[in-house]
Structure formats: C-alpha cells, structure tokens
Amino acid sequence: MKDILTAPFVEEMKKTTANMYRLGWDERNGGNISYLLDGDELARYLDPGRVIRRIETGVRAKELAGRALLVTGSGKYFRNVTDDPETNLGVIRIADDGTTAELLWGFCGGGRPTSELPAHLKSHIARLAADPENRVIMHTHPTHTLAMNYVHELDEKKFTHTLWEMCTECIVVFPEGVGVLPWMLCGTNEIGEATAKKMEEFRVVIWGMHGVYGAGRDMDETFGLIETVEKAAQIYMLTAHLPRLSTITDAQLARLAESFGVKYRKDFLEL
User: Fold this and answer.
1) How confident is the model over 234-257, as pLDDT tens digits?
2) pTM over 0.85
3) Domain annotation for the chain: domains and CATH numbers
4) Which residue in the list 116, 156, 165, 230 is annotated as catalytic?
5) 137 phi, psi to nearest 5 deg
C-alpha cells in the first residue's frame, strides 16, 4: 500500500491551501475545503476497513453514504497544512446512516472536520445532481469580493452583472452568474441548506459579509473560478469611486458568451 502523504489528492490540497493562505484569502483558521475522492484511488493508500473513530456530521447526507472525502480540519490554519497534513486534514467516509462520518485517516490529536461540514455535504449533494463530475467544494474569504459586499447591493442579478462587466473572461468562466445569500450564522444547518439551494443553480455563492463558496470538478477549476470572481471584484473596488468612461455592454457580453458557446443567464442582461 502506498504512503498517503504521496497521494495526488493530498498534494493538491497542500498546494491549494498554501496558495490561498499566501493570497491572504484565508487568515488564521478561515476557509475550508472538501474533496470527494475516488474509491479505487483511495484504496491504494488506505485500508477502507480500518475506521479510526466515528464523528457526528451534524446533518443528514444519505445521498453521500459510502463516499469518502478529504476535508480540512476545524480550527486548523491553511498555512500549517503543508508541514503537517495528518493533523490539519482528514479522510472521512459518510456512513450508511448519512449522519455519521468514519475517520479513515488524519485529524491527529482528536481533530474534527471543518465546522462548515453541513454546508459542504449539502453542497456536494446539490452539485452532484447538477454535474456528477463536481468533486470539490471550497469556502474562502477573498479580500476584494468581501469588500464589495459592503458597497454593492447584495442582489444576484446586479452583483453578477457588475462582475461580468469587469473582465472580458467573466461571463465565459461563470456564465450562470453568482448566487448571493444575506448574512447568516455560519456553521449551521440553516446556512448549509440555503447554500445547497443556491448550488443547484450556481457554482459560486456569496455569503454576505463573510466569503465565498465555490464548486468545481477539481482543485484547479474551483480555485480558478473563485480567482476570476476575486479579480473582477478587485477591479470593481479599484474603480467604483471613479467616473465610468467605458464598459462592456450587455450586447457585447451576450456576443461573447455566444461566441464561446456557454449557456449564460440571459435574464441577468438587458437585451
């Protein structure tokens, strides 16, 4: 059996968390990631019959029963993942009852999965229904996107439209737009359910005055999706107080989306 510390999914998690910390998106113990793993690949690194302990998930996720996930830990710092992955990460498998997680590896010293696990599991269920290849859920606090929450209306159509106007690539990268939630108490089933509902339509969900939830097929796609939103928000924050002399028109946005063959939210444009 291979050493799990050499597994590609562990390496991806180490690189991604380090990069997110370097960018200033995940201060202290901010941010969390969950990564649905392929069972056959996981079996090369772990004995699936060896359960270290059982952990209550705080939510019912029967649809994920038997599925394993690599998850960041509660109270853990992204900057420490590279040096000590076995303490800061864990591999869990959702038990048949859908409410218990079986710890297969990691979370040394009695650690637990992220407190946002309910939102992650519910979001995985929603995204798998929308796209069976979606395997990553990523929560982070990108600086300019968060700042934009305070000076822009938290309205999905208006927020999306502003982001689309900021960079030519935006409507191509997230043609479905971004979902927006008002401020809600984090770590609860309530915000988990609300996020999952948005994830039925959107791969990016803004948590008002808190951060972003993103979904994708792999780490690169998910990170790149959030990175594009953050770049657009940065441009907005750099220009919002200045006179607007130029913009990408709605007709141009539609032409761009149609040229790239992406299915975009036409109701988010005035055509």
Assistant:
1) 999 999 999 999 999 999 999 999
2) yes
3) 1-115 (3.40.225.10), 117-271 (3.40.225.10)
4) 116
5) -120, 130
